[in-house]
Design a protein that fits this description.
This protein is α/β, with parallel strands linked by helices. It is built from eleven helices and 13 strands. It is globular.
Length: 300
């Protein structure tokens, strides 16, 4: 079975493609000409280049494929074009990675685009499955937990905007890849949408404690009222100042983000690992990188 993967050079794609190959699938990867393929260079991947905004190149890439796995973000307005290309190429099966961020109560700029993309997928007539992961973590290309453990490794404390009691449920990247594989292997998932998340929800305070414990240390948590921080960040954003954190990120941190995944468990055997296990693996990865590069604390 030949799978066309969009977004294959990204964080999740770099873990999914080896898994697909290991399980007997043929993989054709659709990537921009400038994409870094080096993490996958040793694998038997058929490469095709183009851009999601160019329907002709995507249609050509899809010809001869049995299924599409779209890891590329649905937040940039390309869904309709992707669906048309799949139909023109005669591809019936499509797996699309969305996000649980569509459930935010905030007026996020990409929310409407993502919701419209999901509606288009459901109306497309394809044998679709939509997987909505929570925040994905699990390695140096993870822009969230990797930054957190790098900070905690060298800092005795951490500021927390708010009380830290909002629920989080990050998902390890390999569990996202495994979910895609299971969906490809299971017809029960056709025509359905699933939220997928880590094993159990934790408060943000517990996330910090678990990450610190994985590093073998304790950290001091300084809780700050978050709305003054949000207002200051919003002002800075209006002034076009670039800061390491955005107002929306602070607001999202204070939203509950816990999601049940029983339907995924029932339909295709989704069984994610706990955050403690996942962050333990990430912390070990960080320690190995620091050990190999003693003069570069970031392992670069």
């Amino acid at each position: 079975m030949k799978i066309l993967v969009t977004g294959g050079t990204g964080f999740t794609g770099s873990r999914l493609i080896p898994l697909l190959l290991k399980n007997g699938f043929q993989v054709r990867a659709f990537a921009r000409p400038t994409s870094d393929r080096s993490p996958l260079s040793a694998l038997e991947v058929e490469w095709t280049t183009g851009d999601l905004s160019n329907a002709e190149s995507l249609t050509a890439a899809l010809r001869g494929a049995d299924a599409l796995v779209n890891l590329a973000s649905l937040g940039f307005g390309h869904a309709e074009s992707i669906l048309r290309s799949a139909k023109e190429a005669g591809v019936r099966r499509g797996i699309f990675i969305g996000t649980t961020a569509i459930f935010t109560q905030l007026n996020a700029s990409s929310k409407a685009i993502r919701l419209a993309a999901e509606e288009a997928i459901r109306a497309s007539g394809l044998d679709y499955t939509i997987l909505r992961p929570t925040m994905i973590y699990g390695g140096p290309r993870d822009r969230n937990m990797w930054r957190l453990i790098r900070f905690l490794r060298y800092s005795p404390g951490i500021p927390i905007f708010g009380d830290g009691e909002s629920l989080q449920q990050p998902i390890f990247v390999d569990d996202v890849a495994q979910a895609v594989l299971l969906v490809l292997q299971n017809k029960n998932a056709v025509g359905k949408s699933y939220n997928i998340a880590g094993k159990d929800p934790l408060t943000y305070n517990q996330v910090i404690d678990a990450a610190a414990s994985a590093l073998g240390k304790r950290v001091w948590k300084l809780h700050l009222p978050y709305m003054p921080v949000v207002r200051s960040l919003q002002f800075a954003e209006r002034m076009k100042l670039r800061l390491p954190v955005k107002a929306e990120q602070v607001l999202r941190l204070n939203e509950d983000k816990s999601f049940a995944y029983e339907e995924a468990q029932k339909d295709f055997g989704f069984t994610p690992r706990s955050f403690e296990e996942g962050i333990g693996l990430e912390a070990e990865n960080l320690k190995r990188k620091v050990f190999r590069s003693p003069h570069n604390a970031d392992g670069g």
